[in-house]
Amino acid sequence: MTSTFTVIDPTTARPIREIARADEAQTDAAIARAVVAQRSWASLPPVARADALRAFARVVEAHAEELAQLEVRNSGHPIGSARWEASHVAQVLNFYAGAPERLSGQQIPVAGGMDVTFHEPYGVVGIIVPWNFPMTIASWGFAPALAAGNAVVLKPAELTPLTAIRLGELALEAGLADGLFTVITGSGSVVGQRFVSHPDVRKVVFTGSTSVGMDVAAGCARELKPVTLELGGKSANLVFADADLEKAAAAAPGAVFDNAGQDCCARSRILVERSAYDRFLELLEPAVRAWRVGDPADEGTDMGPLISASHRSTVAGFLDGTNVAFRGSAPASDDPMLGDGFWFPPTVVLAEPHDRIAREEVFGPVVAVLPFDDEADAIRLANDTAYGLAGSIWTENLGRAVRVSRGVKSGVLSVNSHSSVRYWTPFGGMKASGLGRELGPDAAEHFTETKNVFFAT
Ligand code: TAP
Question: N or C: which end of the chain has fewer CB within 10 A?
Fold first, then answer.
């Protein structure tokens, strides 16, 4: 009998659907179909692969509202964010549809002949994604991987498989061959691990926690299999006294409470220059209290629920023994419509550098605020973490912006902004936040191996 798991709506805590849980044999069968589909796909003219990806993008765009509504139910994302995510998937597909015709090699001068390099696809790529942004993170892997001539097997998180399953159906509707892009639902320890160990999966892309990422990387190392890792973060939002403090304070809640803080790029530490510390907190409080937490289907909502009851307990545990400065609101447990959802109010904590809340990833709507003394202290504190994914720098001094952005060890930084993700610029982390880069102009090339051929003349 096929084993199943239940998908829950985090807004109501009610079941949505039963999903089949693939075992190792079913995973192997999907990988075998991918091997066959990849051969035909890679032999198509580049323009045909480009056309196929554009067709996939058009079908996704035509179903964007349906995908967005599905994400609201499965992930509790506010509808405005979910609409952005669905359109983003179509844009990522369109962007990498330009890649098949641009994967040029080189002609290198040599004596006695001609030397040429080719970018050849790996074959089958296994992509493992987490529950926080199920559609977008999947597309960062599958769009460039397909563009480079690979087949893809995709494993969504068991908590949030619904939009990935629908994307798999839409790929077939758009005309992609059976087996070229297969969504396999099941647990990480079975399906995900099989991607790592199966000899026909030639590259793995893993997005998730640093601890599981390390296991995946160790498994890939045993197979000599390349792996891209997008892992956790504890990103700093650095606010200097010479910044536009009103703007910095107004933007700070969105930088950490977006997606209820379940965002690898969440600026979950706000580091404020000591001379501006009190004024910044005064400005931050009304901005946090104005953050609207509630029904994600409501157009006016800024933040929905956390993903699960157990995740809510984990987030709450981080507040033990902390100095909470102020909190926003969240639906109460006696609310007849929303009371069973996994709500958690936006929370601001005053912290010291050695506090757990200032060092570990919470992955919830909790931010630690810490003072710093000068520019060197700001860089030291920003780097005083195992992670190095994202960060923001608020200052009106251009020289300082340059110095600090070069000094902070993070893969993606923004100055006077909290923007982290644009599909046309590279994204990824340093230190314990990951290995390799996704998105940007070079991502399709990352799904190829370089072959060098010497022709004697
Ligand atoms: P994980 O528990 O690491 O799970 C991520 C994915 O890996 C899920 O699909 C999971 O499957 C699967 N998995 C679990 N154990 C596995 C194993 N032994 N082998 C192979 N796959 C396995 O992370 P999460 O709790 O879903 O996500 C939160 C974390 O992801 C946070 O740390 C966050 O910072 C990070 N994250 C990083 C980024 C970027 S871009 N850097 C983006 C989003 C999230 P099941 O859960 O279905 O079993």
Answer: N
What mean pLDDT do residues 434-455 have?
A: 98
pLDDT above 80 (res 78): yes
Ligand 1 contact via 137 beta carbon (within 6 Å): yes
Query: Residue holding tokens 């809510």?
Result: 312
Where in the sequence numbering do the catalytic residues fall? 230
What's the CA dihedral at 173, 175, 181, 183 to 10 degrees? Answer: 10
| CA gap 439, 365 in Å, rounded | 26
- pLDDT, tens only, 10-48: 999 999 999 999 999 999 999 999 999 999 999 999 999
Assess whether the C-beta atom of 305 lies below 6 angstroms from ligand 1: no
Q: Is any ligand 1 atom within 6 A of the Cβ of residue 158?
A: yes
Q: Give me the pLDDT at residue 243, please.
A: 98
pTM over 0.90: yes
Shortest-distance Cα residue to atom 12 of ligand 1: 188
